[in-house]
Amino acid sequence: TPGIAISRRPKRSRWSSCARGFDAFMERFGHLGDSGLDLTAPRWREDPDLIVRMILDTPPSPPRSSLAWGDVRGSFSILQRPLMRRIFRRAATYRRLREQVGSDMIFGYGLLRPAFLELGARLAARGLLARAEDAFLLTLDELRALVAPGAARVDELLATRRAELAEAPDLDLPELIVGEEYVPRRRSVGPVEVLHGTPTSRGTYRGAVRVIRSGADFDRLEPGEVLVVPYSDVAWTPLFARAGAVVAESGGMLSHSSIVARAYGIPCVVSVAQRRPASGPGDAPSDGTPGRNGRPRLSDGRQSPSSRAAPWPPAQPGSIPATADGGRH
Predict the structure, then answer these.
(1) Among residues 132, 97, 129, 106, which one has the least CA distance to residue 117?
(2) What percent of the chain has pLDDT over 90?
(3) I need a labelling partner for 321 at 20 to 30 A (CA). Which of 15, 111, 264, 284 fits?
């Protein structure tokens, strides 16, 4: 069953090969998580059942590989091909290296998480924290003070930090911050016809939109759907092999979402400032309009996208026709 625990796998010979493959996968990729550079985000190795569910619940999809030289060779003249082939191969090499660098950085951050969890557990055992994870809400100096003899509980400070974290997803940060102070702005919520962003992978696509917020939602993405994410990093790469297009709330031309989308040859729009649906994954057909670069378009499915705006975020999961146009570069 999808919820089967790894420790309770049937010990039969037909499982041995699968078990070895799974263990090898976790050894190589277990340091990944929803947000690899966030120490508060659990790692895959901490919840192997999640990976088992992802494997068992993910629907089959046609195999898709990244663009090969043969896919673009016809776009160049005979004189251009030798140079463009070298450029293409070099770009493919550095794309792989970028993914490896990202994975190595996440691995390094992952080495710190167990240490802070252990420190938090010890402080919780002394009655100074409510739970081990509260250690992530404190600065290093605050943790040092809490470890010192005679330290008192910091419940009020922790409550303030939790409230700030709960409010953060509803805020838009300015593109440029000078100094340490800035005035945050709450995101607008209401009917939206066009979401503005930056086109980073060319193309136009229409399909059902699926909002994915974390690894727990990975299995909900059906082949060909428009993938809507707050961000992405190495752990999110498998989703791009099934997506028909990508809309990301953050990112730029050289962000992970953009590079991987270009590698798979699917349209991508990033830095979409308006808030993604907050109520859960829903379906939203997405039809691109040539010339409207970087503008995911939404409608309610009963009229054309230009004549009727759809609520964003929706009141509840459901069908919302939309548009994602990766532009023409």
Answers:
(1) 132
(2) 18
(3) 264
